[in-house]
């Protein structure tokens, strides 16, 4: 029996160009759980996602992150992916000259390792199946990665990648932005299909509407580079209805921007 995946973030601090963005963030995600993070613009949500994935522009200055009890921060980006971490990016990159299917197959094989590559037939079958679920036209498999994709098509493609890679800890950074209502439901169905006891999710979003379709177990509010409040789905409903002022008042926060607390 494989152990339940587990991500532990302890007192994480990170900076970019001498500006501290993450200021002692704590969070724990286990397999089977869906966590949502909401928070005002510029409070460090994407920084958290990129820091966890190992983007070199962020420097970790303190704290610890463990994935299945192993030190995530010591791992190179590809090792993090192999350890089961996945990030669906807020702004996916375009790569001209590399077809979507070549990219996806390389990513799967890199994860599976030498000698354990997926056969071409199996890959095509899997990709077709997942593209069907996401209602993506077959042409997206041979178009260059994200090149000319609309905002919503890029987001669907990120979820396609997640479905094919089958990671154990999935970070979805504003996967709902740019999606029309039908696309939102399709993407949410893709995420829900992936929910299992073997997989945990961290969903970064500004809007309750995604959480109507992907029901979170925990909702966290991030301000000034750390989690300042946690609750259940009712917290997201209150944020949608009332915004963030009540939390700032409750916690005595005068300015929610990260600069205010440097
Ligand atoms: N290269 C950089 N130099 C200076 N500051 C930066 C740099 N990159 C990011 N930042 C700052 O880091 C802060 C956190 O940005 P981040 O994208 O993590 O916020 P966010 O909570 O995801 O915001 P949003 O909700 O708008 O997506 C912002 O104030 C941003 O301007």
UniProtKB/TrEMBL annotation:
All residue ranges annotated as the ABC transporter domain in the record: 7-249
* InterPro entries noted in UniProt: AAA+_ATPase, ABC_transporter-like_ATP-bd, ABC_transporter-like_CS, FeS-cluster_ATPase_SufC, P-loop_NTPase
> What Gene3D superfamilies would the database entry show?
P-loop containing nucleotide triphosphate hydrolases
Name the PROSITE patterns for this protein: ABC_TRANSPORTER_1, ABC_TRANSPORTER_2
Q: What one GO molecular function would you report for this record? A: ATP binding
Instruction: Provide this UniProt record's keywords sorted from A to Z.
Output: ATP-binding, Nucleotide-binding
Q: In the UniProt record, does the keyword Lyase occur?
A: no
**Can you tell me which family this protein belongs to?**
Belongs to the ABC transporter superfamily. Ycf16 family.
What protein name is recorded for this chain? Answer: ABC transporter ATP-binding protein
Supply the source organism for this entry. Brevibacillus formosus
Gene name on record?
sufC
């Amino acid at each position: 029996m494989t152990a339940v995946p587990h991500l532990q973030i302890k007192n994480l601090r990170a900076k970019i160009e001498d500006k501290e963005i993450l200021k002692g963030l704590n969070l724990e995600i286990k397999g089977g759980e869906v966590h949502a993070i909401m928070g005002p613009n510029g409070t460090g949500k994407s920084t958290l996602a990129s820091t966890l994935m190992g983007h070199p522009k962020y420097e970790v200055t303190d704290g610890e992150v463990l994935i299945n009890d192993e030190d995530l921060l010591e791992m190179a980006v590809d090792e993090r992916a192999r350890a089961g971490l996945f990030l669906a990016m807020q702004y996916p990159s375009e790569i001209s000259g590399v077809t979507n299917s070549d990219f996806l197959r390389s990513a799967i094989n890199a994860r599976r390792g030498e000698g354990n590559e997926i056969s071409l037939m199996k890959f095509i079958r899997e990709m077709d199946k997942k593209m069907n679920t996401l209602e993506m036209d077959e042409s997206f498999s041979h178009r260059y990665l994200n090149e000319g994709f609309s905002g919503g098509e890029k987001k669907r493609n990120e979820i396609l990648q997640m479905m094919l890679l089958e990671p154990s800890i999935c970070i979805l950074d504003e996967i709902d932005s740019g999606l029309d209502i039908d696309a939102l439901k399709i993407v949410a169905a893709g995420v829900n299909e992936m929910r299992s006891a073997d997989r945990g999710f961290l969903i970064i979003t500004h809007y309750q509407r995604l959480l109507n379709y992907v029901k979170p177990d925990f909702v966290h509010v991030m301000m000034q580079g750390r989690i300042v409040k946690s609750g259940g789905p009712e917290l997201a409903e209150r944020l949608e209805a009332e915004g963030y002022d009540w939390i700032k008042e409750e916690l005595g926060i005068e300015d929610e921007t990260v600069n205010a607390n440097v």
